[in-house]
Amino acid sequence: MLxxxxxxxxxxxxxxxxxxxxxRPPANALGLPLIEGLEAALDATRDAKLLVVASRxxxxxxxxxxxxxxxTVDAAAFAAYGEALRTALNRFAxxxxxxxxxxxxxxLGGGLELALACTLRIGTERATFGLPEVKLGLIPGAGGTQRxxxxxxxxxxxxxxxTARQLDAAEAYAIGLIDRLVEPGQAEAAALTLARELRExxxxxxxxxxxxxxxxxDLPLGEGLGRERREEQRLFERCExxxxxxxxVERRPPRFA
Length: 257
Known about the structure:
Order of helices and strands: EEEHEEHHEEHEEHHEHEHHHH
Helix content: 40-55%
Radius of gyration: 19 Å
Number of strands: 11
């Protein structure tokens, strides 16, 4: 286990899976210490093929941006803070590896934006989700206005952001905000189980799926189909597809990298 500035801890679960744990009481506010800890954790886990993001603060995944910090800064420092948060979250959103958010408590504001930046989200029955930035005269500025509509649709995203209301886990699961719903206390374990399942599959194929799906809503159908065709051809030519097909024919487990 690697301790990074106390507020973020990295646990290794085998050679290829890493868990990034947030632990900045009382609510995992995404201030500069936590942002720097996330960046350090991502640097320390470059060799991991899959990431799990979870919390060690009871009742919270992350409660949002550091409002006390924002209350003390000028416009330039506010811009720098926002850029630091966006940069860290964009690293989770990159398609070079799968990340899974394990939410067992409040995921609000920047905390929800962190979960949205992950590839997949697992929530427990006591998880709560919301983007309350309009109450501060702001908007979700770390990807919320862009990633949430892509998950739940424009109407549902607007309803959440304009009213600042909080969703319970059942509603979040029903609208596709979270991908799996588990019992309280089981989010991290469920995320690790999923990560181990995904590790058995071709990582380049998983990444190609994410890249293809991510452009599905942005490209005309013909262009999207062209992107899909190129991704599949590349996988075959780079031996991932050849190995998977050979393993199926030979009735053996595939030997993916």
